[in-house]
Amino acid sequence: MEKQRTKVRYQTICTRADRQTVVYGLQCMEACRDTWVPVDVIEDISTAPDNVLRMAERFTALELSPLHFRDAVLDQVSAL
What we know:
Order of helices and strands: EEEHH
Number of helices: 2
Strand content: 35-45%
Oligomer: single chain
Number of strands: 3
């Protein structure tokens, strides 16, 4: 039996808040034909890249619905 391909994935992004501060966020992407299309993005989750990377990995592994993306991020940030 062929494994179903993932239809949603999350990846980290980084932006510069100011000259000295880099902040990390998440981008939610959905599969559309043979490419990934950005659905939603939260740019300023944390200054700690490891925390955001773990969120991306967890959300992707769980195939978190984009509908729950913002609530799940809020829950994760509240737990830190």
